[in-house]
Structure formats: C-alpha cells, structure tokens
Amino acid sequence: MPELPEVETIRRDLEPELTGRIVTKVTIHKPDIVLPPGDPDSLRLRVRGRRIASVARRAKYLLFLLEDGPVLQVQLRMSGRFALGRERPDPGEFRHIAAEFELDDGRTLYYDDVRRLGGFRLLDREDWEREEARLGPEPLEPGYGAADLGRALQKTRAPVKNALMDQRRIAGVGNIYAAEALYRAGVDPRRPGRELEADQVARLHRALRSVLREALAAAGTSFQNYRAVNGRSGSFQHSLRVYGREGEPCRKCDTPIERIVQAGRSTFFCPACQL
Ligand SMILES: [Zn+2]
C-alpha cells in the first residue's frame, strides 16, 4: 500500500500536468471505485467542467483541489495507479481502467485499479477540513521535531510500530517505512511507545525522516503493485533493510531477520540490533 513517499511521488508527477486544467468529461467504468459518501453520477456531474486548482497530498491521500471548493480525494490502497496521455495507456500494464478524466488539453487521466480497494471520494471543502484536522502532523514538514514524535508516542501503551502507523499520531507512515525506521533507529517494534527513552525517540525521529526522504528521492518502493504515473517504477525496494527479508541475514550483524505479526500486519526486524 502506498505510503507518504509513493503518494508524494505521484503528486509530484501529476501536479505540473494537471494544475489549471479543466475536466471536460468523467467516465466511471467501475462504480465501486466511487467511495461513500456520494455515487458515480453525482461525482461525474460535480467534477465535469471544473478546473483543477492544485494537486496536493495529506497523509496517504492524494487530493485534487477543484476550483470553487470541492475536493476529490484519491485513496490508492493496494493497486491504484494513474496514466496520463492522449492515447490509452499500454493495455499490458493498464488492464483494469476503472475511471477516465478527460482534460481540456486533449489528454486523459486514467485510473487503473486491479483490486479496486481504492478509489475516489468527492468531499465538500469543509468536510475534508474536518477530516484533515484529525490527522497527525506530516513528518517531513520542516518544523516536525523529535519532541513532536515523543509527545505522540508518550500517550500510548501500543507497540511503537503500531503507534507509528496510526494516522492520528503521525501522517503517511505505513508498514514498510515504520519497520525500516525502527531498524535504522535500533528500536524493538514491540516496545510500548511510551516506554521509549529520549535518545531512542531522537534516533527514531531522525531515522523516520531520513528513510522517508530517501524513499521519496527513489520515487518510492515498487515492492508489489505500486507504480508512479505512466507505470514508472520506484527503486527503494533495493534499499530495504528488513521489510520482506525474513530469514535473511541482518546487514549489520548477520542475525536472521525475524517476522512477527502486529495488529494483523507483518513486522520485520533484527532481534539482535533492535532493543
Ligand atoms: Zn542485526
């Protein structure tokens, strides 16, 4: 599932192309990609004819801010991906086109989603702002400090890995980057958030920001389905140190990487390096 670096990569691909464009026609091929509230017909009618004022990201949401208010929120979930062009994209790569947004410059934005767990929500600006206010801070904002992370972890008995993935505490971090940041920081993912020492919080803060920044520079992790716009792969999968490496030797100490399940998700870690 795309996390902050993947969604931000897509945003950076789309932003210069879509800003200022008018959506002239919307076609929904698979109605289940229109997520509640709302339905395919109202989404089609409300988006058609509107100008895209900007393309933004908050947490793992991609946001098309439409002129005069509404926000078209995209949740990419497992397999959502975009193509943009004058011609239909390669059917080998884009076999499950679920929606098309025709633009006033003759190009079309295609949304493809093989598993159709993701999709679009059209929200009034005020509803989005209410939802947005419940999300935690963005960890790559310049002002996000170790004290902010410490406060978020201080309040919870939950294992630190789960706390990092809680979007109300910190925005945009999911399974891959939580595991990688904890490994870099040398912190056991099972340790309760509020039991972390100050120096561990400081290391985790540094590790989290550096892993997210490096992944963003690599256009994200194309581990399973994720691709940037028009099928471009990310390359951070080559830099993963624990995620997906169960049984393989730790790069620092040669101990086999272990996999455990936390809150229904796999956690990979080095039992010798992470205390
Ligand atoms: Zn190790």
Which percent band covers the strand fraction?
Answer: 15-25%
Any idea how many domains? 2
CATH architecture of the largest domain: Alpha-Beta Barrel
Ligands in the model, by name, code or SMILES, are: zinc ion
How would you sum up the global shape?
globular
CATH fold node name of the largest domain: N-terminal domain of MutM-like DNA repair proteins
Report the end-to-end length measured between terminal Cα atoms: 27 Å
Topology, please?
Blueprint: H1 4-18, E1 23-28, H2 40-47, E2 52-58, E3 61-66, E4 71-75, E5 80-85, E6 97-103, E7 108-113, E8 119-123, H3 125-133, H4 146-154, H5 160-165, H6 175-185, H7 198-217, E9 258-262, E10 265-269
Antiparallel strand pairs: 1-6, 2-3, 3-4, 4-8, 5-7, 6-7, 9-10
Helix pairs in contact: 1-7, 4-7, 6-7
Bound molecules: zinc ion.
Description:
By secondary structure, the protein is α+β, with helices and mostly antiparallel strands. It has 2 domains: 130 residues, MutM-like, N-terminal (N-terminal domain of MutM-like DNA repair proteins), CATH 3.20.190; 124 residues, Helicase, Ruva Protein, domain 3 (Orthogonal Bundle), CATH 1.10.8. It contains 7 helices and 10 strands. It has a 4-stranded antiparallel sheet with strand order 1-6-7-5, covered by helices on one side. It has a 4-stranded antiparallel sheet with strand order 2-3-4-8. Strands 9-10 form a two-stranded antiparallel sheet. Strand 3 and strand 4 form a beta hairpin. It is globular. The structure holds zinc ion (ZN). Zinc ion binds next to loops.
What are the main properties of this structure?
2 domains; four-stranded antiparallel sheet; Helicase, Ruva Protein, domain 3; alpha+beta; N-terminal domain of MutM-like DNA repair proteins; 275 residues; binds zinc ion
